[in-house]
Amino acid sequence: MFMFCLLCRLTIIVSQIFISLCEKNMNNLVLSLAPKFTKLQTLILRQGNTQLEDNAIETIANFCHDLQDLDLSRSFKLSDCSLYALAHGYPNLTKFNISGCTSFSDEALVYVTNFCQKLKILNLCGCVKAATDRALQAIGRNCNMLQTLNLGWCENVGDLGVMSLAYGCPDLRCLDLCGCVRITDNSVIALANECLHLKSLDLYYCRNITDRALYSLAHSRVKNKPSMWQSMKGRYDEEGLRSLNISQCTALTPSAVQALCDTFPALHTCSGRHSLVMSGCLNLTSVHCACAVRMNTIPHTAH
Fold first, then answer.
1. How far apart are CA 297 and CA 299, in angstroms?
2. What is the mean pLDDT of residues 147-157?
3. Which of 127, 84, 80 is nearest to 102 (CA)?
4. Signal peptide: which range, if any (predicted)?
5. Whole-number pLDDT of residue 223
6. What local confidence, expressed as pLDDT, does residue 33 receive?
7. pTM, entire model
8. Which of 28, 109, 154, 186 has minimal Cβ neighbours within 10 Å of its Cβ?
9. Is the pLDDT of residue 298 over 80?
10. Angstrom distance (rounded) from CA 256 to CA 254
11. Alpha carbon distance, N-terminus to C-terminus of the chain
């Protein structure tokens, strides 16, 4: 079954079935279709113009209990009622995106974590009211399978929340803390010590981060190498940071960043492979990855 609209689209994925719907009537269409797709596993409800209301989410929660992937990003009309409904309706939820949903509160998000404990990917970017230390404490307490978390521009996040997250979610792989201006070295140190599988860390504009945090990341790899080598059965080199953004972290010095770069060979500063991003840090121009150094030392062949 396919319905098309030239203006804008809502995409609902049901196994191998794709349905496109007019965003103009999104709420009513979701209300009518939800009871027909009780085996729905993935539901993408991204919106250009806000249409979704709480009754649509409540209807989905009543009928679609197999839902694993839900995207409600930019749903400005939704209130905490939607989160309370999905907490009971989606016990198997593993991927949840509410980025840009500025109306949700941390109380409702805490409630969700009590029921949706299988979450692996959570996007809270821009959820200023929902993403607080209190909410992160609940995530750390209830969602220990979490692997990816986006907290970009959540200015109410501080060390207490990030440290609780680190202690409660040891399998964390990707963490975006860009614009979380309240966090300090203590957050990064906790992540370095507890989240040994961390591959991607975004600290853009976290200006309270100093060399102490970066040295802790480097030291954690050295400290945990023997035990991880055994547990990974020779795959240790696949572990460790592969992406790091320290742009606008102006308190950092070249020696600390170079030490980290030397410790994690997957961090690159060379052209085309920028996995170590340092824009806005003019004092770090002397930092280079190993392959960048090799390229600069290779003698030019005379023609």
1. 6
2. 98
3. 127
4. 1-22
5. 74
6. 86
7. 0.89
8. 28
9. no
10. 6
11. 65
